[in-house]
Amino acid sequence: QVHLVESGGGVVQPGRSLRLSCAASGFTFGSYTMTWVRQAPGKGLEWLALVSYDGTNEHYADSVKGRFTLSRDNSKNTLYLQVNSLRVEDTAVYYCARELTGGLGLDYWGQGTLVTVSS
Amino acid sequence: EIVLTQSPATLSLSPGQRATLSCRATQSGSISLAWFQQKPGQAPRLLIYDASNRATGIPARFSGRGSGTDFALTISSLEPEDSAVYYCQLRTNWPPRITFGGGTKVEIK
């Protein structure tokens, strides 16, 4: 049974940093492209970044390029998102999701972790 | 940058009625189009992948169609539990990008 569990969210002041984690289980983690998606309160879904199955290729949305860094540790079945220079507008629920082979859709999602940026 | 426009923004229908949701892209050339259902307080759930394939466990009343720049999700006979926001999502090959539409809220009267 596939499970994705995010952690690392919380309340943080503007300008500070956080590292979000996504622990995967129930599948061969190192065989799948993984992504991060966020959702601000009452808003729609926003794609942030994706990383190839082996971690050699990362791609970012323009809105977070340079501030967010995606990585993965296949030996630990864990995906990470380092978020720096946080802004109030980064307040959102952050989801990790698994991508179907061939980029056909995001078939499993975690429950999300809430990041609140506030002074 | 590809933009996905979903319409209508809100759809209010009765149980048993047919719902058709539209998703239009500003350009073609993507890998695939997917549809998600999201209920309040929950993560999105994959309904349709590669434009027309139902994901595992998705009821047959959900169907997807389309290609190029125009896509649609149809719910053939609405059930009360179909009340949710529905998002389309496009994936491009190069550069690798994922884009979501703004969502359509389906309300069951």
Brief rundown of the structure:
The complex is a heterodimer of chains A (119) and B (109). Helices cover 0% and strands 51% of the residues of chain A. Chain A has strands at 3-7, 10-12, 18-25, 34-39, 45-51, 58-60, 68-73, 78-83, 92-99, 106-109, 113-117.
How is this structure best described in words?
The complex is a heterodimer of chains A (119) and B (109). By secondary structure, chain A is mainly β. Helices cover 0% and strands 51% of the residues of chain A. Chain A contains no helices and 11 strands. The mean pLDDT of chain A is 96. Chain B is mainly β and 109 residues long. Chain B is 0% helix and 56% strand. Chain B has strands at residues 4-7, 10-13, 19-25, 30-38, 45-49, 53-54, 62-67, 70-75, 84-92, 97-100, 104-108. Chain B is globular, with a radius of gyration of 13 Å. Chain B starts with a strand and ends with a strand. The chains are: A mainly beta (119), B mainly beta (109).
Straight-line N-to-C gap of chain B: 37 Å
Main beta sheet strand tally, sense and closure of chain B: 7 strands, mixed
Total E-strand runs of chain B: 11
By helix and strand content of chain A, what is the structural category? mainly beta
What topology does this entry show?
The complex is a heterodimer of chains A (119) and B (109).
Chain A: E1 3-7, E2 10-12, E3 18-25, E4 34-39, E5 45-51, E6 58-60, E7 68-73, E8 78-83, E9 92-99, E10 106-109, E11 113-117
Parallel strand pairs in A: 2-11
Antiparallel strand pairs in A: 1-3, 3-8, 4-5, 4-9, 5-6, 7-8, 9-10, 9-11
Chain B: E1 4-7, E2 10-13, E3 19-25, E4 30-38, E5 45-49, E6 53-54, E7 62-67, E8 70-75, E9 84-92, E10 97-100, E11 104-108
Parallel strand pairs in B: 2-11
Antiparallel strand pairs in B: 1-3, 3-8, 4-5, 4-9, 5-6, 7-8, 9-10, 9-11
Give short descriptive properties of this protein:
heterodimer; A: 119 residues; mainly beta; seven-stranded mixed β-sheet; four-stranded antiparallel β-sheet; globular; B: 109 residues; 0% helix
